[in-house]
Amino acid sequence: MTQTYRxxxxxxxxxxxxxxxxxxxxxxxxxxxxxxxxAWSCVNYKDGLATLPKGGxxxxxxxxxxxxxxxxxxxxxxxxxxxxxxxxxxxxxxxxNHDGGFAELCCVPGDxxxxxxxxxxxxxxxxxxxxxxxxALAVQQMERNGLAPDNGEVLVxxxxxxxxxxxxxxxxxxxxxxAAATGKTDAATFLTGLGAExxxxxxxxxxxxxxxxxxxxxxxxxxxxxxILAWTLSTMAYRGVCASTGLTGGPGLQSTVFxxxxxGVSLLGxxxxxxxxxxxxxxxxxxxxxxxxxxxxxxTTEIGFDDLQxxxxxxxxxxxxxxxxxxxxxx
Length: 331
Hints:
Rossmann fold; 2 domains
C-alpha cells in the first residue's frame, strides 16, 4: 500500500471555508477499524452543505466530506472484513464528524460498513447512495403504515433531485401511480421516463395551504419541507401517509392539526443516517431487486474526482437532476 493518498478537504478560517486537494498519510487501523480503498462516491445535498461555514453539517475542521463511499478493503482489524472484500458505507458520522468518502482512502469503524449487496456493482451502490437508501426507507415505512398501489396516487416533491428521482422510479416500479412535483421546467421528460404519470409545477405545490384542502394523495414523499410540506399535508387523502425526507426548502413547518384529526393522515419522519445496521441489509437487498429502477443509468451522471468542487457548488444551487456519482478509482 502506498504511504499517502489524495483527499478533498474543507478547511475553515474565520467565517469562510477553503476547499482543495491534499496529500494525507495512510492511517494504521485500530481495533475494530477497517481501511478501505475508495472506488466510488457520490454527491448529495448534505455534502454541499458540508462545504459551507454555516451549513450546519460539519462541526470540526478540517474535514473530508462525502457521506457515501464504496470500495475494497485494504487492511482490517475487524474480523467481519478481510482484505479484498467489497464494502459500502453510508450515513452514521461518515463525512460529517469523521472524514468521509471524497478521498482515495478512508479508515472507518467496521460497524459502519456492510458488504456489497449481490446484484449491485460498487458503482450501482453509489448511484443509490444515501439518496436511494432514504427513498427506499420512505417507501418501506409508508407501506408499513398502510400504503398500497390500489390506495391512490402518490406525490413526490423535489422529484428531480436525488431522493425524489429515486422515489419516483421505485414507486413506479412497484406499480404506484406517481405525480412528480419539480421546480425544473425542463425535467418533465426525465421524470416521465422514470415512471411519473403527471407533473406538477413548484407553483402548484407551494400555493398557500388551506387548513384542509382537496383530498388528493394516498401517499407522499416530501424532500422539500416548509410551505410545500404544509400544502402536501393539507391535500392528503383519508388515512394518507406522508414521508418527510428532507429540507431543501427550509426546516420550518406551519400547518394545522386538521389533516391529522379529520383525515387520519400520518406524517412519518425518515432518518437514514442512524438507521440500525440490522435493518439496512434487508432493505439494500430489496433495492437490488424489486426497488431497483428499470434503468438505473438514466438517473446517473458521472464525474471525476477532480470535478468535485464544481459539482458541490451546482447541487447547492439546485442545479442537479438525478444522481451524481464520483469515480475515485472505480473501473
